[in-house]
Amino acid sequence: MELHSLLRTPHPALRTPYSVLLTPYSPMEPSIPDLRAEPRERAYAQLLEMQSLLLEGSDDAIAGMATVSALLHHAFSHLWTGFYRVVEPGVLLRVGPYQGSLGCQEITFGRGVCGTAAAERRTVVVANVHDFPGHISCDARSQSEIVVPVFDATGALMAVLDIDSSVPNAFGDADRDGLEKLVAWFARATYVPVPV
Ligand code: SME
Question: What is the pTM of this model?
Fold first, then answer.
């Protein structure tokens, strides 16, 4: 579908009419493009554009997590893509919106790849999960993993984004950069209650 047709026919998943969309698609086609063959930088640029259109005007963290999970999971055909939310700061993560097979419910800070990324507030890339001490296996097909911390507007850790792949060494610098840009939306856009 050409861009001019898209401008007249916004995709129903979009909250508001939009003026520019990088990936042509129609409501009759899958709404998330398969980006596996694209250079990663270009693929993430496309996903960032879709994220900003889909979440325009939203300050809802759960809506953001659900949308980012769906975009990434289907664009790259990952094994598991989703969020673990901080439910006790410094202590406990609990599963949030995700796509893929069943994830474990809770992870303590410091445990596994997610707990390590949360405790150390940094992105952790694992080329081979079998080499990572304490890796928590939720799916035996998982071979490699990336976990990215998600911060709110105050700089507090609110969640981690966890992606598992059935391909060894699936994640590199372009993924780290692209994913960190995607989760920066949470610090910019989500609502943080002011303590009274
Ligand atoms: N592998 C993760 C656990 C979460 S699942 O993979 C969905 C970890 O080691 O923290």
Answer: 0.86
